[in-house]
Specification:
5 helices, mainly alpha
């Protein structure tokens, strides 16, 4: 028998390698779907990075709303979470400079399940 290369090449031709690709089902689900806390943390970090410039923060919040809508259409973001994020964005986008800081400092505002004063939802 001719030497075709190193021992790994010979093993590949012998077809006994236990880690081969045999009819594996391709999984479409991504295990890296963001959870509620992750979406909220991203929103909060964008706002906190721009705490001195509410207008810059508000423009980034508007961009994030587009991302949320796209993620919702793809199925990465459920409807309830989208509503919660939109409620927060509404408050942040309408906030004055002083209100912006107040929202950033409000810990309940950043907790999952915050209803924005509408507890009956």
């Amino acid at each position: 028998m001719m030497n075709r290369g190193g021992p790994l090449v010979e093993l590949r031709f012998m077809r006994w390698w236990p880690f081969g690709k045999r009819g594996r089902a391709i999984v479409e689900d991504s295990p890296h779907v963001k959870g509620t806390r992750m979406w909220l943390q991203e929103l909060r970090s964008v706002c906190e990075r721009n705490y001195q410039s509410p207008s810059a923060g508000q423009s980034l919040v508007r961009e994030m709303q587009v991302e949320w809508t796209d993620a919702n259409r793809r199925g990465d973001l459920d409807d309830m979470l989208l509503q919660g994020l939109d409620r927060r964005a509404f408050r942040l986008l309408r906030a004055s400079a002083e209100e912006w800081i107040d929202w950033l400092d409000n810990e309940k505002f950043w907790e999952p399940g915050w209803k924005g004063g509408f507890e009956t939802e």
